[in-house]
Amino acid sequence: MMLISEPNAVFSLTAGITGCSADKSIKTYGEAQNFFAAVDLKLDLSTIMYEVYRTINTESGSKPDLMWGLTVLYPITVNNEFNMTRGHFHQDDTKSEVYYGVEGEGLLLLMDKKGTTWAEKVFPGSVHLIDGQHGHRLVNTSGNQALKVIACWSKHAGYDYQYVEEHPFGFRIFAGIDGLDIRRNVVL
């Protein structure tokens, strides 16, 4: 008789990723306020800015090294600056990542180690091949809808958040009167 088992994780656009091989992290405004150009004293520190659901594969020597995730980036502005993820480079820059837009609209900010920054539009059906040598950050420009993006990456990629903190992305994205107000990032 053949064994038929339940999957390690289940994916849903409404519930995220659940199961024995899944975890969820939440980033509140209190944890994210330093991502933005200026602190918004009117925004409650407990406001959920984004959630990340992912499969986890912690087995040492395990053959499957791919991870699957969903980022849910809420439609919030901080002093008119669109909500964004923390952004990171990969510790192992030979490991790439793929993003797939499923709901909402936004931008994928990309940056090389020279500080050159550019963006790709994110929308339902968009596919983004992210070179392991490029920093990346999501920005929700929807205004009233969560930006939901699926990601697939190697568990060996690692996250280098410190580089982005020391060398910020070159542009910031604000809500403008007639669309996006894209401003050069002034690092003090």
From TrEMBL:
Pfam families: GPI (PF06560). Its EC number is 5.3.1.9. It catalyses: alpha-D-glucose 6-phosphate = beta-D-fructose 6-phosphate. One of its GO terms (biological process) is glycolytic process. Residues 47-165 form the Glucose-6-phosphate isomerase prokaryote domain. InterPro entries: G6P_isomerase_prok (IPR010551), RmlC-like_jellyroll (IPR014710), RmlC_Cupin_sf (IPR011051). Pathway: Carbohydrate degradation; glycolysis; D-glyceraldehyde 3-phosphate and glycerone phosphate from D-glucose: step 2/4. GO terms for cellular component: cytoplasm. Keywords: Gluconeogenesis, Glycolysis, Isomerase. The keyword S-adenosyl-L-methionine does not apply. GO terms for molecular function: glucose-6-phosphate isomerase activity. Belongs to the archaeal-type GPI family. This is glucose-6-phosphate isomerase.
